[in-house]
Write a structure and sequence with these properties.
The complex is a heterotrimer of chains A (435), B (290) and C (276). Chain B is mostly helical. Chain B has 13 helices and 2 strands; from the N terminus they run αββαααααααααααα. In chain B, strands 1-2 form a two-stranded antiparallel sheet. The relative contact order of chain B is 0.14. The model of chain B has no long low-confidence stretch (mean pLDDT 89). The mean pLDDT of chain C is 85. Chain C has 13 helices and no strands. Classes of the chains: A alpha/beta (435), B mainly alpha (290), C mainly alpha (276). Chains in contact: A-B, A-C, B-C.
């Protein structure tokens, strides 16, 4: 063993050494392992050419692991990272805690006014921009045009939930392994609860009233959950309580879903090279119930600088490069417009080339129709469409997500699930000192 | 052979590991004990203070707690039974002089070299998946509906996956024990007309008692803390159907960022582990004495 | 207890043994096969064996996307380092416990094992804070220490059981020849216990290699081993079964190969005193 091992170690040491370039500042960038972020790592030659004095070290992790490591580091003032990738849920909370560096002093070519107002608003606390959006997303309906045609139906551009149910019934063909609708069922505040919370908005429901009293005992939540369970039990795939974004994407790409209501970024994947139905996908706005709110969410993976970083200037230089208009142009020139990180800048959507991308218009319309400051038709004390921007939310919603996931699996009734959720959230809010 | 000076020397030689392990045990334990009485949430740093037994009370009042306790013991017990029983059978089988014995053994111990998250993801995605998994394909081949493993039998699925990971360990230890059994004894029994079962029951099994004890002891220690496989496959669900105590702690530490509660859960887990260890030692300790 | 069998029984046992072995190994085999398929072929239903479209692209993709050699090297350093350090500390202790046993030796052993009973998640933040103070976050030294301490009880126990099997007379003979304590360990004990030490080493390298909690929590870039490499490939935008399989294969193959070459040693040595 030793000989081979030594040979291997020698070889790898050589590889490692040759990779070291002369550099003055090293920054550690923590990112989530999705396609757009991985693509950025492939475009680093451009950054290195422009900023030879900054060396970038990547930490690429799966979303949950990334969040865990980054949160631990920042809450304990560890200073391991110089640039972190966080979402619209974390930014307002962490910004308020003073854990993030304000990005108000980015250079003029960053053009902060070009950011989409809804996204920019979600990343700003007390006038300070605490993170720069790398890509933004809302949610929408993706459906199979061929199956709709075969059923003799047409999908309205702005469907109601009743339309969705009708279409799901028409497209379902369980013998052929085709299920009318695929929705998230996997427990998690960023999985089924993101979908259900956004959906509940269109049913007129809300998480809390103005006094932070949870509202799962309301008729609106009951209507939401009943409709969701009915839809999934009748027309959804078996085992849906274990399906999150990734599982549904795979099913849709295999041609096993008639419709899928999920993140707008999925549009480029279901029309991409790994999809077997790439040329048969249509898009529509997330459904509503005629109450004035649609069931779509708003999210932006954003780059921020922890206050504990010891290379803040280099970190900001990197963020400006990665989220600048020039970066979008760079991706477009190398990989085509369809692969540009979407949903952050107004200028992208006034670009004629980008307008040719099939899902461009639906994405921007979806993003514009989401309002984090007034997610429900009823008044709420919180900010956030598919989440509630308070520190307790992630923990509380994870448990509520489990309860709802159990209801989908059939081990709890809808009423049971709602009363359990109500009792649990009420206890937790009391423990956290809200009422 | 133990003079005074050699005793002293022996103490000096044991000291480093004892001191290291003592620090390794006491410092985290003391900190955990301290935090378990504190309000300490990573995301609410402004609110800190003593909370008495609040964190403990939360665990005991949680509707999931007793189920989680039961699941923890079910996981340990289930995996122990499966690995020991199958381990004995497989050890007996691969101890026979068959063709390609060496390669055969390599195949049997292979799961031991697979990282737990990889093992869990192989089983979840390539085998148990209701649409793309191999089991679903087999079911469809017979014209049956695919079994929804992770949704309908979450605890059994987790026990199955963990058993697969630990089966090689049990098999290896039992195999070494088997190899030290003298063949004369067996042959003599065979000549006396003892049936195969009788030979197993009265000669082989007693010889393996010690090995079985070791398997149970070591595996229990590892199994009591398992949560990674659950996180990868079922996330403790559906609902809390496959939530174990370590997974409950994991949720408090990672999702809720509630360090106080996680610490209280940790102390409860240590107490549980000690209770289990006490009964194990009472039941099996004799087998370890020479 | 291997004995001669009749040809018929031999055939049956051979068949049975091979079927069982293949069933146990099958998930690993299937993963490796999947890693050579295209993504479409990997999720095809019914599953494809011979008709699959085979490719090396997944490995190329995984290789291009991350710095595999660095993760690999970190894994080697951490696994081997923690094991060697553990052995250095454990050998004298195990020797003393085996040859100069006190009344409390058994209890001491049990206590050592019991230090493994604290669930890792519960001490995550305390340990993280300690490591932060000591500047050990994202250092190989930090992980070597943690994994060494985690496995030290197992190492000591294994060594103790091997040492106990060495007959005391040999030591006394050496002592009569005037060998000092140190010489006794180096020239008499260690050579005799070498097989035991070797299998202890192997088992602990495997345990350290497969550790996937602390190695992820306590690292970022410089010290991240293959467990973190896997965490960067799981579930990115759709379940890329084939790529995930390729990454998994790259993470487990080194230790699998090591295990295969040392299989005899492992089978012989993994007794934990299970044999009288």
């Amino acid at each position: 063993m030793t000989k081979t091992l030594r040979a291997l170690m020698g070889a790898t040491a050589l590889v490692a050494l040759s990779g070291v370039a002369m550099a003055e500042t090293t920054i550690t960038v923590a990112t989530v392992n999705n396609g757009d972020m991985v693509r950025m790592q492939g475009l680093m030659d451009d950054f290195n050419a422009k900023h030879p004095d900054i060396k970038v070290e990547w930490v690429t992790l799966e979303e949950n692991v990334l969040r865990q490591n980054v949160t631990t580091d920042i809450a304990t003032g560890g200073g391991q990272y110089d640039v972190i990738t966080i979402g619209t849920y974390e930014v307002p909370i962490w910004g308020k805690q003073g854990w993030l560096e304000s990005l108000n002093d980015l250079p003029a070519d960053y053009d902060v006014d070009d950011l989409l107002p809804a996204i920019r608003g979600g990343l700003t606390v007390d006038g300070n921009l605490y993170a720069s959006p790398f890509y933004g997303e809302s949610s929408m309906v993706m459906y199979r045009t061929d199956l709709m045609e075969a059923a003799g139906m047409a999908m309205p551009e702005a469907p109601t939930w009743a339309d969705i149910e009708k279409a799901a019934a028409a497209m379902t063909n369980k013998d052929a392994g085709i299920y009318g609708v695929c929705l998230r069922g996997k427990a998690g505040w960023g999985e089924n609860m993101a979908f259900l919370t956004a959906m509940s908005n269109s049913f007129g429901a809300r998480w809390f009233d103005e006094n932070w009293v949870p509202q799962f005992d309301s008729p609106e939540w009951k209507a939401t959950l009943d409709f969701y369970l009915g839809l999934m039990n009748n027309y959804g795939p078996p085992g849906a309580s274990n399906n999150g974004f990734n599982e549904n994407l795979t099913l849709f790409n295999q041609g096993k879903c008639g419709m899928w209501i999920d993140a707008t970024v999925a549009a480029s994947f279901v029309t991409g090279k790994d999809s077997t139905v790439a040329d048969k996908v249509g898009f529509a706005l997330a459904p509503d119930n005629g109450l004035g709110k649609r069931g779509n969410w708003l999210w932006a993976w954003s780059l921020a600088v922890p206050a504990s970083s010891d290379a803040k200037d280099a970190a900001k230089t990197f963020i400006n490069w990665a989220t600048n208009k020039d970066y979008l142009a760079l991706v477009a020139s190398k990989e085509g417009w369809a692969n540009v990180p979407p949903g952050t800048r107004t200028s992208l959507y006034s670009n004629e080339e980008y307008a040719k991308v099939p899902f461009a218009k639906m994405t921007i319309d979806s993003i514009n129709s989401a309002d984090p400051t007034a997610p429900s038709v009823q008044p709420v004390p919180y900010v956030g469409v598919q989440f509630v921007a308070i520190p307790e939310f992630a923990g509380v919603a994870t448990t509520v997500g489990e309860i709802f996931s159990a209801a989908l699996a059939g081990s709890k009734s809808a009423d049971q699930a709602l009363s359990e959720a109500q009792a649990f959230v009420a206890d937790e809010m009391k423990a956290a000192g809200y009422n | 052979m133990s003079t005074h000076s050699s005793r002293l020397a022996a103490r000096m030689m044991v000291a480093p590991s004892v001191v290291l392990l003592l620090i390794w045990m006491i410092v985290p334990l003391a900190m955990t004990l301290y935090y378990s009485f504190r309000f300490y949430r990573l995301l609410s740093p402004d609110r800190t203070g003593w909370t008495g037994f609040t964190n403990y009370v939360w665990f005991f009042n949680s509707p999931d707690f007793w189920l989680a306790l039961f699941n923890t013991l079910a996981l340990v017990g289930g995996v122990l039974i499966i690995t020991v029983v199958l381990g004995i059978l497989i050890a007996l089988l691969i101890d026979q002089p068959v063709k390609g014995q060496g390669f055969l053994r390599i195949l049997v111990i292979a799961p031991f070299f697979v990282m737990p998250p990889v093992a869990a993801s192989i089983w979840e995605n390539l085998f148990m998946h209701p649409q793309n998994g191999l089991f679903a394909a087999v079911a469809q081949g017979f014209g049956a509906q695919p079994i929804l493993f992770l949704e309908q039998y979450p605890m059994w699925s987790v026990i199955g996956i963990v058993s697969w990971e630990w089966l090689p360990f049990a098999t290896l230890i039992l195999l070494t024990a088997l190899q030290s059994l003298s063949s004369e004894q067996i042959e003599a029994a065979e000549m006396d007309g003892a049936s195969a079962f009788a030979r197993f029951r009265y000669i082989v099994l007693p010889h393996m008692t010690r090995a079985i004890t070791v398997v149970i002891l070591i595996q229990t220690i590892f199994l009591l803390g398992i949560f990674g496989e659950i996180f990868t496959t079922t996330q403790g669900g559906p609902g809390s159907a496959s939530t174990t105590l370590p997974y409950m702690i994991f949720k408090q530490a990672i999702a809720a960022k509630d360090i106080g509660r996680a610490a209280a859960g940790g102390i409860i887990a240590v107490i549980l582990a000690n209770i289990v260890a006490y009964f194990l030692m009472r039941g099996l300790g004799r087998n370890l004495d020479n | 207890m291997a004995r001669a069998l009749s040809p018929r029984r031999k055939l049956i046992t051979t068949l049975a043994a091979w079927s069982v072995a293949l069933i146990i190994f099958f998930p690993v085999l299937w993963m490796i096969l999947t890693s050579f398929k295209t993504e479409a072929s990997a999720v095809a239903m019914p599953p494809q064996f011979l008709s699959a479209s085979w490719t090396l692209e997944n490995y190329a993709d995984v290789w291009a996307r991350s710095d595999y050699p660095r993760f690999f090297l970190n894994s080697v350093v951490i696994a081997v380092g923690s094991t060697l350090l553990g052995l250095v500390i454990a050998i004298p202790s195990a020797w003393a416990m085996a040859f100069v046993p006190g009344r409390k030796t058994k209890d001491l052993l049990m206590w050592m094992l019991s230090t493994k009973m604290m669930p890792a998640v519960a001490v995550m933040i305390p340990l993280y804070l300690i490591f932060q103070r000591l500047g050990l976050i994202d250092t190989k030294l930090g992980l070597v220490l943690v994994l060494m301490l985690m496995n030290l009880p197992i190492i000591i126990w294994m060594l103790y059981t091997y040492f106990k099997e060495i007959p005391g007379e040999i030591l006394e003979a050496a002592r009569m020849d005037g060998a000092g304590l140190w010489n006794e360990i180096v020239y008499v004990l260690t050579p005799m216990a070498l097989p035991g030490i070797a299998s202890t080493m192997l088992l602990n390298i495997i345990l350290a290699w497969n550790e996937a909690f602390w190695t992820i929590v306590l690292t970022t870039t410089k010290a991240a081993p293959l467990s973190a490499f896997i965490a960067s490939f799981s579930a990115p935008q759709g379940l890329f079964y084939a790529k995930l399989s390729a990454a998994s294969a790259m993470a487990i193959l080194p230790i699998l190969i090591l295990g295969w070459f040392s299989q005899k040693q492992l089978v012989r040595g993994l007794t934990f005193g299970a044999v009288k």
